[in-house]
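User: Quick sanity check before I run a bigger batch. Here is a single chain. Can you write out its predicted 3D structure?
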Amino acid sequence: MKTIMIFQNKTIPVYLTDTNKQAIEKLSAVLNRKLTTGKNALKTCIKSLISVEIVGSEATLHSYFERDTLTISLY
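Assistant: Done. Predicted structure follows.
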């Protein structure tokens, strides 16, 4: 399933394997928290985010540069 999320005034597609609305809410909270308290590699990935893929309790953050793509835990 594909849905759209607005994060930092950008429209970001989010791909889900199941329809878990809590996962999208949790993703937004985690991204906001990591943007302020995360390490530099994670901040760089979030700033250049182009799409997110959620599988179970993990979110793969796809960024503009492939080398900056990371997977984070939502829970």
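The radius of gyration is 11 Å.

User: Great, the batch can go ahead then.
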